[in-house]
Fold:
Amino acid sequence: MNKQERYNPQVIEPRLQREWVESRLYFAQPNPDKPKFYSLVMFPYPSGDLHMGHMRNYTIGDVIARYHVMQGYNVMNPMGWDAFGLPAENAAIKDGIHPAVRTPDNIERMKEQLSKMGLVYDWDREVASYLPSYYKWTQWMFLLMYRRGLAYRKEAAANWCPVDRTVLANEQVVDGHCERCGAEVIKRNLVQWFFRITSYADRLLDSLDTLDEWPDRVRTMQRNWIGRSTGAEISFPVEGTDHTIPVFTTRPDTVFGATFVVLAPEHPLVGRITTAEQRASVQQYVERASRETEIERLSSDKEKTGVFTGAYALNPMTAERIQIWIADYVLVTYGTGAIQAVPGGDERDYDFALKYGLPIIQVVEPISASGEANDEGASDPSVAPVYKEGAAVPVYTGYGVMVNSGPLNGMTTADAKAAIIQMLEAEDKGRGTIIYRLRDWLISRQRYWGAPIPMVYCRECGEVPVPEEQLPVELPLDVEFTPGGESPLTYVESFVNTTCPQCGGPARRETDTMDTFVDSSWYFLRFCDPHNTEEPFAPQRANYWMPVDQYIGGVEHAILHLLYSRYFTKVLADAGMVDVQEPFRRLFTQGMITKGGAKMSKSKGNVVPVDEMVESLGADAARLFVLFIGPPEEDAEWNDRGAEGMYRFLGRVWRLFEGRVVVGSSGGEHAPGDYSQADRDLLRKMHLTIKKVTDDIKRFHFNTAVSATMELANAMQAYRDAHGPEKAAYQAAAGNLLLLLAPMAPHITEELWRSSGGEGSIHTQSWPHFNAELAAAEKVTLVVQVNGKVRDRLEMSADITQAEAVQAALGSAKVQQHLDGKTPEQVHYVPGRLVNIVI
Structure:
């Protein structure tokens, strides 16, 4: 193949992109003769436009897939579309274009852009969540959950976004605001569908320890979100009634110091136990608290406020009569929605007690410096008793020895915890228990563009699941996009009115649709068997490819998508559909590309479009720059000059292949033989670069991998200027430079490989082999003289420094004998040959 005279990516790249698709270069099938590698980038929402921030993410995934093919793996690298959701529906409301029209148009546009980036996917496996052939199986997943007791419907206070007019799961509320549009979220009581993710809380938490190839911060975020707390539930009788108030506490050892009880304003007992005298004050406080976000209520800076209900409870261990208050710093969603207030052991309770004049009893005192300490019984040296103005008793929140606690006095807090739980259970006043911060996953959405929930409601039969043979329950296309708190499906009579699958009588369909995170919680399994019409995937096919060996996406999905996907995988494993317990073996979370210090977005006007970059500099230059711009896990600022610099570098690579440069299909592996020193130096640099780039790609250090190839190119240019391109050492370096660059700059390397005599596609060649012997520095014999007489000969590395040579000479035992303890007056050094010591 003849090489064109100058580097012109606009000519090369489109031609090669078509060839890769037509030759099905990266289309995968199970192959027992090769180890499998499942490479996956989180599938995108089809917005229709991609910028350089997207390119960074997808290029990283492309490099990993191409690299593993060259390493001999059977690689699956699919792509699909997370196509349901609010953006398309809100756009339909705004401009009148139906999501079923806009979505496929956007998909075609994005596929064109992905191809322009030089990204290679197995398009035979393409899926899109908005298609009935996909959401049929999303509905099947719902029915699986329902059959296994993991899907249920109940009325609950829900997070309501007044802008998007739909319910949000707890995980979709960030600092009290909608994570999508930023509107302040309010509470609204609705009948909703939930997935019982809490049933898997322990397994989701414990198996995080097995994910040692996930970022620590992601695992920490999930641990904190699940929030397992071990303690006790204690029953406080309400004086003069049959009611009891169960409270959860992680410190049951402090129950003797509980001097009042606090209920969340939303607690169901508030209206029942409040006295007539306090009713107006309590109602006013409840209304005020309902307008606050959880973040505001839990803020440590917020002044503690509350209202006395007029009712009293009895401390179950002391029988003391204690007041029952409501306060906004207690949440109905945590524990039981009620706390035992121990102002001597909790700073929030302490401040509250000081403000309202409630009793404070110290029940734990630190162990003295001379005392013995063990585990939780030890005094916490970072926590000391604190007296506040107006208080005679300190607050101490650490561990130590029990005081003022009846039969617990003198015990360490660890022993007291065990003892009090035994006492509570023996006297039927409480029990040891575990609670979680995690709440069941609310999946109902009052919007149109999502998978319909496959349930019907019959007057005779009640709640009835749609039979599997009637799936999919398809979305009608004739809807009015006028959201008002109900799904637009509510007003489509042909959809709503149906017959009961059990009795055949009239029934109504569920009009809520599923949270789009349901669609993305199992898509990686559908990729394993995308054309199956009998089941969501065949277990044997999923078991061949799963788990995903490398998953790539943003850290913003740490709690939502990643947690839900782990839950789905465990449920499917329990159902015998897949063998793995965890979906993603290795996870990488990339940083954003910013411009002007802000994330690229149309609203900020700082987008660098993919098409613009490709048309001006080519995909390879853009790919290399997003890899080179900085550590990929960190945010990086876009720089137009940097991208232009990569284009110039590729032009230099192109010119390195001018003349009679021939590469072998193996990349020109040569032994140095009787090569010149310049040949050996170039071969050594080549092998050091092979090791560097290999190690860097494995560690996702793409910026230093690119830098290493640039250094090798510079060394080749210097050699070429002095010795020409025809010698074997140069040919070897040329072939290996192309192989090392191939995953990162796939077009130019494919073109130069072919024009320089390489067989087949460069992307099906074996990855270069590192030869440690050829990479090692050469040895020289260093002659050591004392006053001009040879006293020793030392084998040293050829690249030894003067300081290292002198140190080695002076340390020689033979030289030491002739120095006889004297200090050298002078030391002369001839690089790589001689050290002469004068005494």
User: Anything to note?
Assistant: The first strand starts at residue 36 and ends at 41.
